[in-house]
Amino acid sequence: MSTQVPDLKESEIASETVKQFKHRFPPFPSVPEGVIIVPFKDFKENGIQIFEGEDEVERDGLGIPTVPLRVKHDTDISKTNPNRTKKREMRGTFRKEWWQDWEEGEDLRNHGPYDVNVAPIDRLHQAASDFQRYRKFPPISTNVQVLWDQFRICAGLLGTTPVWQKASEKEAEDGAVSDDEFDDEDSKSRSVRQGGPGERRHPKLRPRAPYDLYGKAPTIVEDNEDIVKLLDTARATKEDKVVAFLDNPARAIQVFLSSYMTYQGFVYADRNLVSTPHLLRFFVNYLLRNKVLPDKTTERSLKNALEIIDAAAKQLPLTSELAKKLPDHFSVAAQSCWGARGDTLDAWIPEEPDNAFESILKEENIEVIKPEDVLLSANAPDGENDSHVPTSDAATDTFDPCSFADSWDQTADNGALLETEWAAPPRESLLSLLGPTALPLTHTPGIVEWSVRRIKSVVLPVEAKSPNTVAGAGAGEWEEWAAEAVERELEGRFARVVMAPWVGWDGPENLPRIMRSSVGALATPASDTPEAGSDAASPAPAPAPSLGPGGLKPHDPLADDITLLMEPAVAETLVLNIGLGGTWVQLARLCDLAAPVPIAEAEGAEAHTQQKNSKKKSLTKAQKARRGLRYWYLDDHMMVLPSYWLV
Questions:
Q1: N or C: which end of the chain has fewer CB within 10 A?
Q2: Where are the domains of the chain?
Q3: Tell me: the pLDDT tens digits for 606-641?
């Protein structure tokens, strides 16, 4: 038995709905003044204009612009001019960037919900597939598709096939057997027999260049079991990558935008430096918007990844810009003055030339003529040439072995110098950059260090001030005064970039190195203490290295900052914590490299020195800070690393 209950709920809803609306019809409101309402029976369709105006805006027959849809589709074309898309592709000036096209309606690209009961790995794979499927990628010339594939490989969403070679094939190649020793029928039979009857064939697929396997020698395998092992290893590596991405997406993206892009060679195309951050920002926002990985820890990591992407959008293009601007004009001029200082490492040992080939020639009674013998003979007076060196009427006593370089720029008639495409551009010099300067007379290259350093601070040029002179100062003090005066002049012209050490930027083995051309005192580490529990007496602590002339302490490449002089226009583009790698050269004062005073002589003059110093004025805080200050320049530039660099 059932009892009917009045449907009060529906009536209550209707009543509330009526209260929410301000207007109810009928009665209909009056028509506003100046407005004409056309009845539907009188409406006439005007269609789309056939010809566009100068603004290329599509309009209807009344001249009213059409309204574009928020979400773009592949079938959306201009009704007035269907060939407009192709026309605009030819006109690069009017074409939008690909990320601007993606931004239109991007917030509506929701292809979920993604079932949280499905494994995170499967959800991530599905999201990556949907991300690519439901959007139009730009032309292949933009390299966006390649970058997307590269990211999927780095994140474990796409695998790479290993490359192998059968041991039998390797032996055949090593035997250097020519093709004409086998007829075509024999070659066909060998290709059919390869793999054996009933054996599963595994084709040797080529890797996607320039991925991890590009340029590497194929793995030598004995049989199909070895091939299966290679495939299983590649599959396991792919799974490890995707697990690492899910564990910490921010770290995976940070590695991709730094060391991965560098080692894979993507940083050498400027379009990659601009496109990659845009691409990853779209993907990360897609994951967050569609709640693909709703775990709080993972979502927090994805939001941190957006901060890294924002930094990459600014710093990646800057790495290319700085690579083209460094070394700046001042560093180039300093290298022109003193020569390259970073061509040899301290651990480098010159090798003796191999004389085996020369010995074989002598055994065959073939006379060996060395280039230096020819030059010496050409410079020798008449009659003193060796019999085995041909003489030339052009050879004179003033022969310059480098004079042939000038002949490229001289005409045969009047000898006037001509500029040719082969002539090297003029190098910057200290004279052309600074004018008459005493820099080469007061300073000389000191410590030469190869390392990677971070930008710690940037100080733009200040008004140059001459140092105060001291009446009755000795020769050494005048040398310090002259050197400081030159340095103050440089401070008024150039920015000062403080560089901090970046130890272990690519692993513990990549430490700063000192070049063989380096001159100056280096800080030495203290002696190792004996192991705990041993009976050996503890060694006396190593004495602190004494300060050199001018208060200069020994250089510690692992801990000391250096101050780099740089053109203001270049320094203004720098970003803090960006890494610069190269050869740094210290501008040491000539008095810094003076010969040390013998110990006995120093002890005898100790009382006199103390008495002399007691009569001097005490140094101010600013003077004390300057006594150990030395500037540096960049002799050779090797790399620029973003501040978020991670291996």
A1: N
A2: 31-95, 116-174+201-325, 331-347+430-522+547-595+623-647, 369-407
A3: 444 444 444 445 666 666 667 788 999 999 999 999
